[in-house]
C-alpha cells in the first residue's frame, strides 16, 4: 500500500520525501523491521522508540512516522518521514487503513469500566452469536476471531494486532464484535482506529492508580471512548453510549454526553432506559424484571450475584441497541457460557462449595463476598492476595473488605512479580483487624488449607487469579492454576473421606 493512502485519516502532519513509496508492512518494534517496512516510533514506559529509528533504517525501513522532524540520515537514505503530534494515534489510524477499516463493516460493542468488562463482553458475544451465528470476542481471557480461539496477551491488544484481528473476524463472517476496552488502551490510543456502534460503561472504582495516579485521570481515560464515539462520522449507524447510572461516575458520564450522542442508561435508578426492577437471586442464577420502552419483561440469567445482573443488563441493552430483538436477546441469556474463573463453582465431596473468582479490586471483592455470604449457611472462607507492581493503595482496602465480610481469611500471594511476597501481604493485613486472618504465602498451600478446613455448608472463595494459568514470580512465570489446585485438593479430600 502507498504511504499516502495510509495517511488519509491522519490529523495534521508533515511529510518529508515521497508519499508514493510502497509500504510492505507497519511496525512499531525496530527489532521486527524488514525491508519496505514503515516504522512508527512510540514513546513508551520502558523505552523511547525514537531511539531505534537509526536501527529501523538500517534494517530497511522505507518510511518513518515520528513525533520529531526528519533527520539528515533519513534524507540521505531517501527514507520518507512523517512528523506527527501523536504517534500512538497515528499507528492506530494507519493500522485501521492498512486493514481496510474492518470495524466499519461489523457491529462493534466496546465495554469499558473497572469491573465486569470480561463478563459483559462474554455475555454480549454469546447473545450476538446466538442471533447472528458468527461474532468476534476480544478481552482478558481470549480472542475469538469467529473460527479460532486464542489466549489473550492483553485485555485490549496493541492497535496493529487489534486491527488485524478485526480483519480476520470480518473475513470469517462475523457480523458483530464484543470487545473489552481497558483504560490503558484508551490512554495509549490503541482503539483510536475503531468505529464503535455501542460503548458500554459498567462502573468506576479504585484500580490502576499505579498507572493513572488519580481517579479523575482514570475516569478521563474512560471518557475517551465516548469522546471518540461522539466525534465519529464514519460509523454505519449512529453510535450509542450504554451507561450504568446506578454508578456515580456513570451518572456523570451520561450527563456529559446526553445531547452530544445517543445515550441509553441502565440500572435500577428511576428514569433508566433499561431499568431493572424486582430482582431475585438463587444459588444457581438470578431473575429480574426489565422495564424497557414501557413494557415489562422477565429476565432469567444463569449467573449469581447482583453485579452479574448488571453485567447481563448491560449486555442485553448493548445487543438490543445493535439491532437484536428484545425477546431474542432475553431468550438467549439462558444459554450463555460459564466465564472461566468468574464465580466458577466447584462442589466439594464434603459438601462445601468452592468458588474461583477474579476479584482483584476492593469493589469486586466486596460484591463477591456479599453474594457468597448470602448463599452460605455456615462459614465463608476467603483466600486472596494482591498482585505485585500494581496499584498498592488497593491492598489494605481489599484486606478490610475481606475481613469484614468473611468468617475466615487466608492471605496469600497473587502474582508477586518483582515485589517481596511478604511485603505485599503485610500491606494487605494492615487493613485487617488482628486475629481475623492467617498468612500462608504459598498459594497452593493456602488453597489446600482452606479446602481441608471446609465443612458441609461452608463456602470457600479463592479470589484474584480467576482464569490465569500462571503465577508471575520475581524469577519469571511458573505454571499455576487455582482450578487445578482446587481439583487436586478435592481429590485428596475425597480419597481421605472414603478411606
Ligand atoms: C504500560 C503498558 O501498557 N505498556 C504497553 C506498551 O508498552 P510501552 O509503550 O511502554 O513499551 P516500551 O517497552 O516502553 O517500548 C516503547 C516502544 O519502543 C519500541 N522498541 C523497544 C525496544 C527496541 O529495541 N525497539 C523498539 O522499537 C517498542 O516496540 C515500543 O513500541 O505497549 C506495548 C505494545 O502495545 C504493550 O505490550 C505494553 O503492555 C505491557 C506489557 C502491559 O503490561 N500492559 C498492561 C498494564 C495493560 O495494558 N493492561 C491492560 C489491562 C488492564 C485492565 O485489566 O483493565 C490491557 O489492555 O491488557
Ligand atoms: N459489574 C460488576 N461490578 C462489580 N464487580 C464485578 C462486576 N462484574 C464482575 N465483578 C467482579 O470483578 C471481577 C472481574 O470481573 P471481570 O473479569 O468481568 O471484569 P474486568 O473488568 O474484565 O476485569 P479486568 O479489568 O481485570 O479484566 C469478577 O470476578 C467479580 O469479582
Ligand atoms: N487486569 C488486571 C489483572 C490483575 C490480576 C491479578 N491477578 C494481578 O496479577 O494483579 C491488572 O492488570 O491489574
Ligand atoms: Mg477483563
Automatic annotation (TrEMBL):
- Which residue spans adopt a coiled-coil conformation according to this UniProt entry? none
Q: Which residues form the Mur ligase N-terminal catalytic domain?
A: 22-87
Task: Cite a single Pfam family from the UniProt record.
Answer: Mur_ligase
**So, what pathway does this thing act in?**
Cell wall biogenesis; peptidoglycan biosynthesis
| PTM comment text | Carboxylation is probably crucial for Mg(2+) binding and, consequently, for the gamma-phosphate positioning of ATP.
Q: Which positions are annotated as binding meso-2,6-diaminopimelate? A: 390, 414-417, 464, 468
Subcellular localization, as worded in the UniProt entry: Cytoplasm
> Per the UniProt record, which EC number(s) apply here?
6.3.2.13
Per UniProt, where does ATP bind? 113-119
Carries keyword DNA damage? Answer: no
The protein's required cofactor(s) are namely: Mg(2+)
- Mur ligase C-terminal domain sequence ranges: 341-466
Tell me the keywords, alphabetical order: ATP-binding, Cell cycle, Cell division, Cell shape, Cell wall biogenesis/degradation, Cytoplasm, Ligase, Magnesium, Nucleotide-binding, Peptidoglycan synthesis
Q: What catalytic activity does the UniProt entry give for this protein?
A: UDP-N-acetyl-alpha-D-muramoyl-L-alanyl-D-glutamate + meso-2,6-diaminopimelate + ATP = UDP-N-acetyl-alpha-D-muramoyl-L-alanyl-gamma-D-glutamyl-meso-2,6-diaminopimelate + ADP + phosphate + H(+)
Query: Function of this protein?
Result: Catalyzes the addition of meso-diaminopimelic acid to the nucleotide precursor UDP-N-acetylmuramoyl-L-alanyl-D-glutamate (UMAG) in the biosynthesis of bacterial cell-wall peptidoglycan.
Q: Which family does it belong to?
A: Belongs to the MurCDEF family. MurE subfamily.
Q: What protein name applies here?
A: UDP-N-acetylmuramoyl-L-alanyl-D-glutamate--2,6-diaminopimelate ligase
Source organism: Akkermansia biwaensis
